[in-house]
Automatic annotation (TrEMBL), chain A:
Membrane-crossing residue ranges in chain numbering: none
Taxonomy, superkingdom: Eukaryota
GO cellular component: EMC complex
Taxonomic classification: Eukaryota, Viridiplantae, Streptophyta, Embryophyta, Tracheophyta
Ranges where the MPN domain occurs: 9-144
Protein name per the record: MPN domain-containing protein
Organism of origin: Arabidopsis thaliana (Mouse-ear cress)
Sequence similarity: Belongs to the EMC8/EMC9 family.
TrEMBL record, chain B:
Listed name of the protein: ER membrane protein complex subunit 2
Family, similarity comment: Belongs to the EMC2 family.
Membrane topology: Peripheral membrane protein
InterPro entries per UniProt: EMC2-like (IPR039856), TPR-like_helical_dom_sf (IPR011990), TPR_EMC2 (IPR055217)
Protein's cellular compartments: Endoplasmic reticulum membrane
Keywords: Endoplasmic reticulum, Membrane, Repeat, TPR repeat
Amino acid sequence: MGSNGELKYEISQNAYIKLVLHSLRHKTAAVNGVLVGRISPKDDGVVEISDSVPLFHSNLALLPPLEISLIMIEEHYVAQGLSIVGYFHANERFDDVELCGVAKNIGDHISRYFPQAPILLLNNKKLEALSKGKERSPVMQLCVKDASKNWRVVGADGGSKLLLKEPSANVVLSDYISSEKWKDVTDVDDHLDDVTKDWLNPGLFN
Amino acid sequence: MVTKTEEIQLNQLENQVENGGGGVWEYLCLVRKLKVRRSEIVLKHGLSILNDSGKRSALGPDEWTLYEQVAIAAMDCQSLGVAQVLKKKFPESKRVGKLEALLLEAKGMWEEAEKAYTSLLEDNPLDQVIHKRKVAMAKAQGKSSLAIEHLNKYLEVFMADHDAWRELAEIYVSLQMYKQAAFCYEELILTQPTLPLYHLAYADVLYTIGGLENLIAARKYYAATIDLTGGKSTRALLGICLCGSAIAQISKGRNKEDKDMAAPELQSLAATALEREYKQKAPAKLNLLTSALRNLKIA
């Protein structure tokens, strides 16, 4: 089996769109989320990211809400044979492409349980290009841990390692953005303020 | 900071306005009074009033206040074309000078904006809004240590500005400078001891720093939050459970006094309250909650 750099990550449309819509809902803040999935039963060089859970839009660096969410999320998905397989982060500022300390720490924590865990960082320039219909690849940057345990961005066109499972995902995403679908996304932060709000977002894509 | 009633009122007006039910002027006044950030909606509806000369003249002298509000909203939404058109209509004044500097800032012309603010400050060294714009500019350029420096200087003069203390605390948290964030929350709790928000935030920070003493203190502040909110804070109830579990883990194999720190009664009270809440409001998630709590007791 190759090193982490040769792993491919395939992200499903729902998982992908949910995270981008979440960042659009909270444009002026940093947001994060977890990736849910498993190693592909057909090819152990591929990690299938089949779902995602948007976490917070404020005070991302505080432990208590993070700890409780990870416990509840794992608990929910284990019944489906899935687990937390990675982390998503969107920086507060448009042109900030750095992985901050918080993202790396959470990424480290997740990779203790799932060593192939990637960090996906929202790429705002690509997201902007989406509205002009010029973007085919995912609007996220893939980051993996290298041999010396440091996080690094995978290639300028990490598009070959991070794949959209459904090729039309960007088209669907653009549609949702025009219809302001991001208003309907709920995250764990919302749930903790009001438990009637469901971070699973059932019915979001119906 | 906005109270719950104010928030409900604001959301009701917002819904009304967005669905064509009128009440735009009241909505805009409320947004102005509460100083909330709803720029897209303000821009859309504010412009509709301004572009209609009949509605505009009905406002009288308030017209200029609306221009100012819409200009700022336009800049926040990066509709700089709109902001500039509005700027041309203003008479000469200091307030306009502020808007011009704000426009430079919105365009990302940092040095020019910096110069503009500095000269405005020479005339009004005690203008809080301008001081805060300098902090905002530092933040927008990603210069966190500069933002912290400016904010600290600001607080030396305006130490009663609670929002500024909160902003500073949140910047510290985002940089993982938890001890400094804790200090900010301590200041806030000292000046406003009846606001559960600060107790909760302080507890979260203490828990994040970790260590037995901090965990015990965090639990006290979670308890204070529960007290101040009449048991309605889900975050605080969960905090108690997390603290109990963490304290128990640290005190494993220690002597009996430390073991008593686990305070199992407090933990089970919190767990019961949580289960009741979920059963009532989120029954689908009750199982998840129960196994999460079980997880914590074992861990």
